């Protein structure tokens, strides 16, 4: 049985889920763009760019799985979503700031991912805070 406090919290998780799906779309688009650029303009599809894309693709598999578990009520999965998002936020900002390591289009992609991850962290935090407040109010 779902109580009313859990139902009120679901919008934050829904928003986080939409943001995670957006992240997956960006990562898939990045892989496609890199594949095309490898043929058309190899200078824009560097080994560093491919390395970054492969790593964020691994997270694009892991993050939705954890998000699914979090929406099922797993607090551990919710923490994992927050932690993974924080790591992605920091790594993408740092890598975007490294001079001449990545092409400009990929730096823009990295900043977009960082913004999405900041929004995911906010949603996860709001959900966890509201849930904790509701638990304390029920006691």
What can you tell me about this protein's structure?
The chain is mainly α. The chain has one domain. 86% of the residues lie in helices and 0% in strands. It has helices at residues 4-40, 47-71, 75-97, 104-138. α3 (75-97) runs antiparallel to α4. The longest helix is centred in the N-terminal third of the chain and has 37 residues, at 4-40. It is elongated. The two termini are 18 Å apart. Mean pLDDT is 88; it is low at 1-5.
Short key terms for the protein model shown above:
mainly alpha; 4 helices; 86% helix; transmembrane helix; single chain; disordered N terminus; 139 residues
Structural Rg: 17 Å
CA-to-CA gap between the ends? 18 Å
SSE order: HHHH
Structural class, by secondary structure, is mainly alpha
**Average pLDDT rating:** 88
Uncertain parts = 1-5
The percent range for strand residues is under 5%
How many helices? The count is: 4
Task: Return the domain count.
Answer: 1
Shape: elongated
Q: Tell me the quaternary state.
A: single chain
Number of strands: 0
Helical content stands at over 70%
Largest sheet descriptor = none
Keywords: Membrane, Transmembrane, Transmembrane helix
Transmembrane segments: 18-37, 49-65, 77-98, 110-129
